[in-house]
Design a protein that fits this description.
Helix Hairpins; Chitinase A, domain 3; elongated
């Protein structure tokens, strides 16, 4: 079973690459696009009554805030390597998981909370279901309290 570091934000190596790519995109293309909008709005005249200028400046502030948050995530990132040889469902591993009540089969990868995206099959290790599944081998079932009530999941198989 992988042990997640208590300090920092656990992240997969792939998650860190995606974070750095997003940060690079915002710091280059995003900033240039906002600067062009501000320049174009300035050319419209009186800035005190120029809605386009004020909207562009507000968007610039939102962009800079997002960049600062991503930089903080990058500083806090603790890369957790995937142990593909482990016989249990751990951080960074992918498995097929059966919802025993509905019969629905999910393919989930356990990742850090900032990488989580259920539509992409990425389940947060900090979520109730993620926590419950960590450390369980194929064939094992877990029962977990979710916002929709108690659910039972079974790890069907680990995917390498």
């Amino acid at each position: 079973m992988n042990v997640l570091a208590p300090d920092g934000e656990p992240i997969t190596p792939e998650g860190l690459v995606a974070l750095e790519a997003e940060l690079n995109e915002l710091e280059t293309t995003g900033r240039r696009a906002i600067a062009a909008r501000i320049l174009a709005a300035r050319e419209l005249g009186d800035l005190s009554e120029n809605a386009e200028y004020h909207i562009a400046k507000e968007d610039q502030a939102h962009l800079e805030t997002k960049i600062q948050r991503l930089r903080q995530r990058q500083r806090d990132a603790q890369i957790v390597e995937t142990d593909d040889a482990a016989p249990v469902f751990g951080f960074g591993r992918t498995a097929e998981v059966l919802d025993e009540a509905s019969g629905q089969l999910y393919t989930w990868t356990i990742v850090g909370s900032t990488e989580a995206n259920l539509a992409q099959g990425k389940l947060s290790a900090q979520s109730p279901v993620g926590k419950a599944l960590l450390g369980h081998a194929a064939g094992e079932a877990v029962s977990v309290q979710t916002p929709r009530g108690r659910r039972s999941y079974r790890v069907k198989r680990l995917i390498d």
